[in-house]
């Protein structure tokens, strides 16, 4: 913990440097805000491209295929090629759509994932939005994405998109409840909603170990709900290609469709990142009490690597689900949420409160 | 204690606006680039709804199954109650027994609502 590198030293040094040049404080803040924006944009795009490659490789491995291997070494440049290809595709102008809402929908989807993305703690001192209600803010902004999906489906004036959007809306709002309640369980355990403080509270022991049984139940529920929230795996009926062509984004073409694709992969990362933050100690290195040498070596791995590594491992589990379970029907989906996950979640919250008050957890 | 404020900016609302504008800029920028380099060709059939190839029948922006609406209402009810649970969850340790008893009443009403919806058959997909 002492030896993990604090990035706020660099950012504060840069701030002092600019101020030292005699620039006005408002100008310095503007420059820094632009830097933050550019950094976010690059990170967002690069992570999305990495995730597209990662998912294709993992899927290929599950199906005993090779996956992309022609463009660049190990096919690493495949997603770049895909990105350029999608940029040069024609944007088709449709006749009977609601033009304003049709154009607005990708904005909502991307903005929701971008704002949630900015809350994640990347490493010590590397966090952009640090509200004291951080995790609550994250849940709040990520639910704007549902609006974008509903608008996309409705404004396209197509039966496939309408059915896809309605299914997606029902699914996402239902599972948001589970996400909210499992986050409450962990917030009660942490005693704070500030993302940075949640990470620092896991200095000695990650919450999944410290909170043992209720934390583990909350993690499993979070993972199921997170899979449903990103419309993936066994819960992909909003875009069930065998019955709805492509679901809510059937009518979108070219880069317009690309935004939904981008947001879907970023949401996968955000789900993994929040799980890493709440259960696996954010950017905290893995420590085993008593193993001083081991802990010391672990401290040398930067926090950013820990955080991204944890998020990617959790996303791998979510991708794994997709190739393990068959797709659910809409009635099974809603039954799973309302009759199983929700009551279990409420019970789990009560269990967590009992454990907190009796002090029966690892301090 | 690690100060996480990036560049020492303590105004988080400003940073939230920056993230919002970045998201908007990403979409606007990519749309602009695509508009510059993507080809354009006109064909009256392209503007039609994506279906089997024959003109679509009836209206698509139509009323929809009430089942989805019912779940939306249930969600609204439970989500608002979840929002009320958050401030208590932060202060579980400090509020102690008094907090537990008052939240237990609230929690009881929440569970009662779920049981009512369940018994009424609102959770069945029809």
Give me the secondary-structure topology:
The complex is a heterodimer of chains A (363) and B (126).
Chain A: H1 8-20, H2 25-62, H3 78-87, H4 99-119, H5 134-142, H6 144-155, H7 159-190, H8 195-200, H9 207-210, H10 212-229, H11 241-244, H12 254-279, H13 292-299, H14 303-322, H15 330-358
Helix pairs in contact in A: 2-3, 2-12, 4-5, 4-6, 4-12, 6-7, 7-10, 7-15, 10-12, 10-15, 12-14
Chain B: H1 12-37, H2 66-90, H3 92-120
Helix pairs in contact in B: 2-3
Summarize the structure in words.
The complex is a heterodimer of chains A (363) and B (126). Chain A is built from 15 helices and no strands. Chain A is mostly helical. Chain A has one domain (92-358). The two termini of chain A are 17 Å apart. The mean pLDDT of chain A is 85. Chain B is mostly helical and 126 residues long. Chain B folds into two domains: 7-41; 63-126, Methane Monooxygenase Hydroxylase, Chain G, domain 1. Helices cover 63% and strands 0% of the residues of chain B. In chain B, α2 runs antiparallel to α3. The interface between A and B is large, with 95 and 71 residues.
């Amino acid at each position: 913990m002492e030896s993990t590198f604090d990035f706020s030293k660099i950012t504060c040094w840069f701030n002092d440097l600019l101020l030292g040049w005699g620039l006005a404080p408002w100008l310095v803040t503007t420059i820094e805000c632009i830097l933050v924006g550019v950094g976010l944009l690059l990170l967002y795009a690069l992570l999305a491209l990495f995730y597209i490659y990662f998912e294709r490789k993992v899927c290929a491995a599950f199906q005993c295929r090779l996956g992309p291997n022609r463009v660049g070494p190990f096919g690493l440049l495949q997603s770049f090629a895909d990105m350029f290809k999608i940029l040069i595709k024609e944007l088709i102008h449709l006749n009977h759509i609601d033009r304003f809402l049709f154009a607005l929908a990708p904005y909502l989807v991307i903005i929701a994932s971008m704002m949630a993305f900015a809350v994640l703690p990347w490493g010590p001192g590397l966090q952009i939005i640090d509200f004291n209600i951080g995790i609550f803010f994250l849940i709040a902004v990520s639910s704007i994405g549902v609006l974008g999906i509903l608008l996309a489906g409705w404004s396209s004036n197509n039966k496939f998109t309408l059915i896809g959007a309605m299914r997606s809306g029902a699914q996402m709002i239902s599972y948001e409840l589970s996400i909210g309640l499992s986050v409450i369980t962990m917030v009660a355990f942490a005693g704070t909603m500030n993302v940075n403080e949640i990470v620092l509270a896991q200095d000695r022991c990650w919450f999944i170990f410290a909170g043992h049984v209720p934390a583990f139940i909350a993690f499993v529920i979070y993972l199921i709900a997170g899979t449903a929230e990103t419309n993936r795996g066994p819960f992909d009926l909003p875009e069930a290609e065998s019955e709805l062509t492509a679901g809510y984004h059937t009518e979108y073409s070219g880069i317009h469709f690309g935004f939904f694709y981008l947001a879907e992969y970023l949401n996968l990362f955000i789900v993994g990142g929040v799980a890493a933050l709440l259960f696996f100690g954010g950017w905290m290195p893995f420590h085993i009490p008593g193993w001083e040498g081991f802990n010391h070596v672990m401290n040398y791995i930067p926090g950013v690597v820990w955080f991204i590594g944890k998020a990617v491992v959790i996303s791998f589990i979510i991708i794994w689900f997709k190739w393990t379970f068959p797709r659910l029907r809409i009635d099974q989906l809603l039954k799973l949420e309302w009759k199983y996950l929700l009551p279990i979640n409420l019970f789990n919250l009560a269990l967590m409160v009992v454990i907190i008050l009796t002090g029966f957890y690892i301090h | 204690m690690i100060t996480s404020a990036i560049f020492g900016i303590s105004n988080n609302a400003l940073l939230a606006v920056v993230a919002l504008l970045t998201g908007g800029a990403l979409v606007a920028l990519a749309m602009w680039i695509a508009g510059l380099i993507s080809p354009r060709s006109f064909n009256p059939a392209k503007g039609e709804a994506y279906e089997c190839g024959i003109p679509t029948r009836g209206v698509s922006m139509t009323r929809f199954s009430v089942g989805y609406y019912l779940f939306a209402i249930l969600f609204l009810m439970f989500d608002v109650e979840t929002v009320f649970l958050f401030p208590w969850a932060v202060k579980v340790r400090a509020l102690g027994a008094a907090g537990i008893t008052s939240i237990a009443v609230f929690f009881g009403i929440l569970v009662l609502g779920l049981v009512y919806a369940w018994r009424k058959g609102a959770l069945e997909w029809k």
